[in-house]
Design goal:
It is an enzyme of class 4 (lyase). With 224 residues, the protein is α/β, with parallel strands linked by helices. The protein contains five helices and nine strands. The protein has helices at 64-74, 92-101, 161-173, 193-203, 213-218, and strands spanning 14-24, 34-40, 60-63, 78-82, 105-110, 124-128, 153-158, 181-186, 208-209. The protein has a nine-stranded mixed sheet.
């Protein structure tokens, strides 16, 4: 007599989240669009200018299906997965794929310290290059540069004139404008936006100057 075999149900795929909220995109090529932000918990870096240190620890476990439901409830087409460092959680790539499959315009904000090669090609990857002033320049994963496409963006947060000179050299060395859009942003409270804008204009540098729109509107208020 055969004995029926019980197959255990697969555990639901989960991610640890700090918050999900609706706001305006404050950076990148989609600046100004109403956007759902999915902020994952945890980051292996400690950039000295970080404005989301509250996402380093804590958070709640969410099933990916529940994340998709909440994104749908908030009712806009742009979704940004951010952190912390979202790629520090392995199932982040599953979430990104599911969001693309659902028809959203999806971006990923990543530190540039982890491999971006497994990210769905439909996602716009906004990849930081950490400057010396960030205190995490040694964490740059330079192999990511070869993976960049015109669908992606590279961001430099400039903390000083020395940072600007370093970043200008990196842009030239790796021919970054031939790969994707390059963004230069002043570190809030460390470089005057007018100064950075003037340096870019004087050098005719082929990069886009950007300010953090969300900081202008809401400061460092979480969930905005």
């Amino acid at each position: 007599m055969s004995v029926p075999v019980t197959v255990a149900a697969a555990a639901p795929e989960r991610l640890r989240l700090t918050e999900i909220f609706l706001s305006l995109q404050g950076e990148s090529n989609s600046v100004g669009w109403p956007t759902v932000f999915v902020r994952l918990t945890g980051c292996p870096l400690r950039c000295q200018y970080c404005d989301t240190t509250y996402s380093f620890h804590g958070g709640d476990w969410w099933e990916i299906d529940a994340i998709l439901d909440e994104v749908a409830r908030l009712g806009v087409r742009h979704v940004c997965v951010t952190g912390g460092e979202p790629l520090a959680q392995k199932r982040c790539t599953i979430l990104l794929q599911r969001l693309c499959d659902a028809g959203y315009t999806v971006s990923l904000e990543t530190s540039g310290a982890l491999d971006i090669g497994d990210v769905d090609p439909r996602v716009s990857r906004v990849v930081d290059v950490k400057t010396p002033g960030s205190a995490e320049v040694h964490r740059n994963r330079w192999e990511n540069i070869a993976l960049l496409t015109p669908h992606d963006e590279v961001k430099f947060v400039i903390c000083s004139r020395d940072d600007y000179e370093w970043s200008r050299a990196v842009v030239a060395e790796h021919a970054l404008p031939s790969r994707c859009d390059v963004l230069f942003s002043p570190s809030f409270g460390q470089v005057a936006p007018r100064d950075l804008a003037q340096w870019i204009v004087e050098d005719r540098l082929p990069v886009r100057f950007q300010l953090q729109l969300h900081k202008i509107l809401w400061g460092d208020e979480p969930g905005r």
